[in-house]
Specification:
Layout (H helix, E strand, L loop, with lengths): L1 H18 L27 H29 L4 H23 L4 H26 L1
Helix pairs in contact: 1-2, 2-3, 2-4, 3-4
Length: about 130
């Protein structure tokens, strides 16, 4: 999940290069080797690039709590099977969420995969709290 989170930035850059747009800052319009023919249109909102930024933000909002909770969960010494169900289930849900988001599928599809990952994190958090009490 850390690797997936880290690669989101490069996914955004690839989309910026492919669309020759989606730049964020005025200084990004300076003439450089990577941008030999800058245009003011390059900093206009580009939904193709913004979609990846929203995906990255979503990954940060969900991935970081899962990683922290997963570490605490492992410290409670759960059964191997339960840990595998939670961890593999979360990863599968997030990969399916990524696919649905990248393909611009209906909100309900994304929401279903989001919910699976979110519920797994919440259940683990509750189990960590119970173990701490």
């Amino acid at each position: 999940m850390i690797l997936k989170l880290s690669l989101h930035s490069y996914f955004t850059v690839l989309r910026m290069i492919k669309s020759n747009g989606g730049l964020l800052n005025p200084e990004d319009l300076n003439k450089t080797i990577m941008n030999p023919d800058p245009s003011p249109d390059q900093i206009k909102t580009n939904d193709y690039v913004e979609r990846t930024r929203r995906m990255h933000r979503n990954e940060i909002e969900n991935g970081l709590p899962f990683l922290a909770c997963g570490l605490l969960f492992v410290l409670t010494n759960p059964s191997l099977l339960l840990a595998q169900v939670f961890f593999y289930g979360y990863v599968a849900a997030r990969l399916l969420h990524f696919t649905a988001y990248a393909a611009a599928m209906a909100h309900e599809v994304r929401a279903a995969f989001f919910t699976i990952g979110s519920v797994i994190t919440i259940v683990m958090a509750v189990m960590v709290l119970v173990a701490a009490i």
